[in-house]
Amino acid sequence: MNGPTPAIVLGGTGYVAGELLRLIAGHPQLSVAAILSDSQPGAPVAGAFAHLRSAYPDLKFADLDEIETVVRRMPRCALFSAAPHGVAAAIIDRLLTAAEAAGTRVHCVDISADFRYSSSAAYEAVYKHAHGAPERIREFTCAVPEHLQKSPTPHVAHPGCFATATLLASVPLLALGLTDMRLFVTGITGSTGSGRKPIEGTHHPHRHSDLYTYGALSHRHVPEIIACAKLATGLEAELNFVPHSGPFARGIHVTVQASLKKPLGTAQALEALRSYYKDCPFVRVSDTAPRVKDVATSNYSNLSAVTNGNSIAVMSVVDNLNKGAAGGAIQWMNRLLGLAETTGLTTPAPGWT
How confident is the prediction for the chain on average, in pLDDT? Predict the structure, then answer.
């Protein structure tokens, strides 16, 4: 590969787009060629992301026509989509069509929900609107990087942040045949998981020093978690998921509980997890309970487990903007580009966020 691959970021001023820009700034084999914002074309990126001013002092947001022109004139590019679900698919389709016409070699990683399902009918059943590019669905595979060594398609849909944390804890239980198929999941997410636009659920006076559930047993990401677990294991689990809003900005803590098929000690459970993830550099299994601050802002996930003989609880923590979104997307892009999957992603968590 001659020089860094130009990267295009879709998603404008959103938190995930900002996290993508932050990670690409430190990536030795990627460089930002353009970032899309239909609402703020021509505005400085540093105006929306002041913390990135030193990395992008002159970069300005572009509109979709400008982005398409950039795609057409490059021999290759990495396309990251952090555009909202329901919007991303049509934009991606337009840019992939332009790339095909121009002979541009492009890989896309979509962080929205638009390509996480294997059919438009499955997507429309959850999101209640027509899919923006149903003919493109077959070109995407949705999986956590640790559960699929190589994508069979040219493009990837990265699972969401709750899905990432839940799958990392759940898939070994199913794949190793340790538990029955009924999983009970409790998850707590930071406020950045709800996006940048202020709403009651993310408004600081409402969220500070509080903890509450939302979408209990009806969260829209449950079908995608079940589908990703089936892709990884061949098994269709029953997922009973209760998400919570936590009083912190970044991170997710998930606890997965299930009944064991046969008695298993805690030490055996931990060894099973370590063995399952022995070749996965971003997953760490510890004897002690994982803490959100140990992974916040990083691409690492910490796991632990305990048993009482008949039941098991697996705890999983990830950063929602990094491992659960932008970092996981770059991990996939590294693979698609033939790079080591750890490239640009090994910075540890600061610990005192």
Answer: 95
Q: Is 161 a catalytic residue?
A: yes
Q: Are residues 315 and 181 in the same domain?
A: yes
Residues 74, 135 share a domain: yes
Residues 136 and 166 reside in one and the same domain: no
CA distance 55 to 64: 23
Among residues 113, 142, 171, the one where a domain terminates is 142
**DSSP strand pairing (212-213 vs 155-157):** unpaired
Residue 200 has pLDDT above 80, yes or no: no
CATH number of the domain where residue 102 is located: 3.40.50.720
pLDDT of residue 1: 56
pLDDT at residue 206, as a whole number: 80
Global pTM value: 0.96
The residue from 77, 142, 161, 228 that is catalytic is: 161
pLDDT band of residue 96 (cuts 50, 70, 90) is very high
* Encoded tokens for 134: 């149903």
Residue 285 lies in a domain: yes
Residues 59 and 119 occupy one common structural domain: yes
Residues spanned by the domain of 27: 5-142
129 is a domain residue:
yes
Q: For residues 172 and 229, state if they share a domain.
A: yes
Q: Is residue 20 in some structural domain?
A: yes
